[in-house]
Q: What sequence folds into this?
């Protein structure tokens, strides 16, 4: 039973990471109905942004107060990249056939990965992420459970971000604008909402959370590399679909469920097809099953015609 | 189309009036100077850019300027009104402008290369400056030329043999152009050649040659196909036994063949498949596991033709499995499902190493040491000599792939104009409407997946032997993206487009080694830019182009006309017979 709770905790940690990224997919989808396939790369940019901030400003400093500044660096870089990407690549394609934005997204994805690989010093192989006092270090023991400090950071940041997100969407003018645009773009425009701005905000919002996730991933994994966004992005997309794409709280739930399922699959699927070599296979199988049998997701969000 | 900078555009009556203007003379002088410069020395340093240092013997690069000059003179002759029937077809002014720009750009680039690498412009010889002056005169002369009014090429009929001759000449140029381009070892020379090629193609396109040729090509489809096949078949004979270029050519052909299979799924049926490389992989793995490699763990070693069939069938069964969600899933979601399947394939072959599942694929190390094919007594690894020309290992595989490619192109074009192809297009345009019209949408979509997978599986069985080894990391998502990019770049749903796209994507990185590191960066950027500015691709099928430019009524009318004309008139050759 201890094993079960340990895996549950591991799953929730992993799931928090997925959830933070998944929000970006879902917010953008809810508003412009495109799958921003390059969102995984925004997450990767966030991690590198945090590291760049640390290397440039606080090289060698491991105090806790550095962490918030690193998060600011991560969020700033990922938001800038996401907003630019929307402005330059996606906005001109808003009325193009469906295939066009998806291919553009693949292009952006490859471009961002390569840009980091080629132009970030030393990024051709994995880079060690900075250690921060208190947040990294020896794991805590809680009864029979081993709790890594970075896990607490990850789960904590999901809770904080989810609360802020809820507040932003439901209580601020911009957030309400987003709701209005996601329901009916034309009417929203007639009501005096600047739709272009709302779309940019949606990209930025998702990117901000992805930036936080980038920091969490760096602390958790000790290493970051230019390719980390691909798999994480794909998993997060699975999470977004699982929760019902377009539904923000669904994405959070979907992320947690996916994380737990993955952790449990590693531990409890018997035989040679269990264990970590196959965990990604099970995650993708889950993605396919959900897409085929319940494309509206767990929370049954908007009914999507194309899905 | 006929925007002219001069206030009074020439009318048709003026065409027959050969009184050349000063501009005409200026441009002619420029073109003649350009040609003359090629026979002078450009540079003291013989080691640079091939050899440009010999008088009266044009080196490879100088020959390119001779070609530009001659084409310019041809257009100038047209412009003087000596060949009225051609003049109405081609817009000499626009072509001359583009040619002049090409010549000028080319000469400036050569001067730059000499200045940087010789080093210093002091090493330049008078010939270079004669060429630059010539190019400048051409630019000055053609700058203000007014465009001619053109007639639609569809309404012009030349004698059948002339049209066929044009196709044959075009094919010959393609053959020697390809052999010349592949023969360039030096990256700088290759880049300059690309500048030349791009410039001349632009010039001819702006001159209206290609719209005319596309009409001819539509009239003489058979001749065109046979010509293209002949060129592809003759290509190894131009290489004189060198395997370096044949290896590239074979890779291009495998890539193009796979892309053609994907084009059925994406281009015709409009189903975005992001895991297509898995089908190629399935074929390759089947072939590897049934080969005589020491790491092949299947005991049964059937003859290769059986392996091809098994590989293709296994692959198409995978296609059926991947296609089955299309019953419920479409659009972006389908793309993600296929992506997930592709990843599952890669992870599975990566895991089946005996520790994490049955021992089949040898895990991350893959299956190395696959022996060369041997069909009958013909061993593909040996060098065979035909007509005194040695044909190496890659040339053998090249011929085999050519047969497969021809088969796939035939399947593709036949399907495209069949009831099935029409059904696919209907599904792509509007699935609900197609279903309402009685199209079996699910069956056809499934068939697209299975058929596309079958073709890729076939190509895969050969690829395994050609590559000598199969490993999981040959079949990553990026490869699927590359295939998709080839289709997007070339033009969805068109055979010629896919061939062009595949060639560009495989050939450029091979030849531009010095940008090899930036290859993917450029590739990503290219996808974004293409989607933004030319979503229909370089050589689009016209129906597809219309989809992306729905409000272009001229284009719509033209396409309708072409279709009506070609449908209504019997082929003149048939009519005579």
A:
């Amino acid at each position: 039973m201890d094993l079960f709770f340990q895996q549950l905790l591991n799953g929730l940690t992993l799931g928090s990471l997925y959830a933070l990224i998944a929000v970006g997919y879902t917010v953008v989808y809810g508003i412009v109905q495109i799958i921003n396939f390059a969102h995984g790369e925004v997450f990767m940019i966030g991690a590198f942004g945090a590291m760049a901030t640390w290397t440039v400003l606080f090289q060698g400093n491991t105090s806790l107060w550095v962490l918030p500044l690193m998060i600011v660096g991560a969020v700033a870089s990922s938001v800038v990249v996401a907003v630019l990407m929307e402005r330059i690549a996606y906005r001109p394609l808003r009325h193009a056939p469906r295939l066009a934005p998806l291919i553009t997204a693949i292009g952006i994805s490859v471009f961002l990965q390569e840009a980091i690989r080629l132009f970030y010093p030393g990024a051709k192989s994995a880079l060690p992420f900075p250690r921060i006092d208190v947040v990294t270090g020896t794991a805590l023991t809680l009864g029979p459970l081993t709790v890594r400090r970075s896990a607490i950071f990850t789960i904590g940041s999901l809770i904080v971000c989810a609360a802020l997100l809820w507040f932003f969407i439901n209580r601020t003018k911009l957030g309400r604008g987003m709701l209005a645009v996601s329901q009916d773009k034309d009417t929203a425009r007639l009501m005096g909402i600047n739709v272009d701005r709302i779309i940019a905000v949606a990209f930025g919002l998702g990117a901000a959370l992805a930036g936080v996730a980038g920091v969490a991933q760096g602390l958790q994994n000790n290493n970051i590399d230019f390719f980390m966004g691909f798999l994480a992005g794909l998993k997060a997309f699975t999470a977004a679909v699982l929760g019902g794409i377009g539904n923000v709280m669904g994405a959070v739930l979907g992320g947690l469920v996916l994380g737990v399922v993955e952790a449990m699959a590693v531990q409890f699927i018997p035989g040679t097809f269990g264990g970590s070599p196959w965990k990604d296979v099970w995650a993708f199988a889950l993605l396919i099953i959900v897409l085929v049998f319940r494309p509206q997701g767990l929370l049954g969000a908007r009914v999507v015609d194309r899905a | 189309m006929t925007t002219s900078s001069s206030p009074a555009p020439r009318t048709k009556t003026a065409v027959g009036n050969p009184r050349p203007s000063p501009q005409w003379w200026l441009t002619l002088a420029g073109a003649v100077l350009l040609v003359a410069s090629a026979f002078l020395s450009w540079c003291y340093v013989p080691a640079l850019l091939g050899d440009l240092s010999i008088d009266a013997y044009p080196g490879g690069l100088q020959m390119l300027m001779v070609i530009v000059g001659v084409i310019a003179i041809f257009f100038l002759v047209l412009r003087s009104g000596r060949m009225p029937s051609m003049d109405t077809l081609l817009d000499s002014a626009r072509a001359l402008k583009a040619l002049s720009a090409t010549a000028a750009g080319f000469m400036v680039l050569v001067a730059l290369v000499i200045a940087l690498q010789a080093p210093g412009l002091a090493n330049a010889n008078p010939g270079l400056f004669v060429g630059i002056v010539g190019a400048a005169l051409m630019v000055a002369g053609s700058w203000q030329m007014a465009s001619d009014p053109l007639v639609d090429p569809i309404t012009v009929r030349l004698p059948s043999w002339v049209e066929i001759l044009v196709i044959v000449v075009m094919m010959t140029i393609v053959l020697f152009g390809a052999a010349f381009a592949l023969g360039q070892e030096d990256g700088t020379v290759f880049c300059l050649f690309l500048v030349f090629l791009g410039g001349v193609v632009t010039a001819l396109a702006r001159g209206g040659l290609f719209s005319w040729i596309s009409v001819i090509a539509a009239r003489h489809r058979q001749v065109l196909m046979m010509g293209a096949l002949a060129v592809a078949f003759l290509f190894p004979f131009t290489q004189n036994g060198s395997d370096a270029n044949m290896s590239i050519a074979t890779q291009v052909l495998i890539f193009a063949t796979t892309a053609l299979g994907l084009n059925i799924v994406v281009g015709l049926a409009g189903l975005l498949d992001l895991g297509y490389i898995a089908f190629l992989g399935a074929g390759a793995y089947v072939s590897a596991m049934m080969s005589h490699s020491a790491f092949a763990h299947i005991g049964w070693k059937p003859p290769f033709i059986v392996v091809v069939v098994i590989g293709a069938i296994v692959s198409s069964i995978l296609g059926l499995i991947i296609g089955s969600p299309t019953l419920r899933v479409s659009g972006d979601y389908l793309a993600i499902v296929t992506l997930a399947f592709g990843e599952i394939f890669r992870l599975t072959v990566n895991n089946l190493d005996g520790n994490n599942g049955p021992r089949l694929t040898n895990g991350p190390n893959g299956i190395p040491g696959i022996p060369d094919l041997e069909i009958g007594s013909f061993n593909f690894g040996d060098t065979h000599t035909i007509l005194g020309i040695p044909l190496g290992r890659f040339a053998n595989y090249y011929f085999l792939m050519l047969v497969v490619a021809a088969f796939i192109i035939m399947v593709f074009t036949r399907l495209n104009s069949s009831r099935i192809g029409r059904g696919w297009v209907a599904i792509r345009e509007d699935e609900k409407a197609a279903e309402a019209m009685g199209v079996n949408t699910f069956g056809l979509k499934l068939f697209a997946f299975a058929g596309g997978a079958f073709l890729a599986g076939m190509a895969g069985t050969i690829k395994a032997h050609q590559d000598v080894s199969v490993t999981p990391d040959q079949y990553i998502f990026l490869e699927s993206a590359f295939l998709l990019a080839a289709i997007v770049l070339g033009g969805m749903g068109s055979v010629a487009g896919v061939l062009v796209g595949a060639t560009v994507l495989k050939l450029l990185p091979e030849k531009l080694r010095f940008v090899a590191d930036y290859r993917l960066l450029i590739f990503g950027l290219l996808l974004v830019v293409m989607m933004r500015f030319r979503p229909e691709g370089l050589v689009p099928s016209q129906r597809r182009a219309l989809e992306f430019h729905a409000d272009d009524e001229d284009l719509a009318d033209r396409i309708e006309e072409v279709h009506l004309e070609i449908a209504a008139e019997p082929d003149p050759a048939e009519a005579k017979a």
Summary: Residues 303-307 of chain A have pLDDT under 50 and may be disordered.
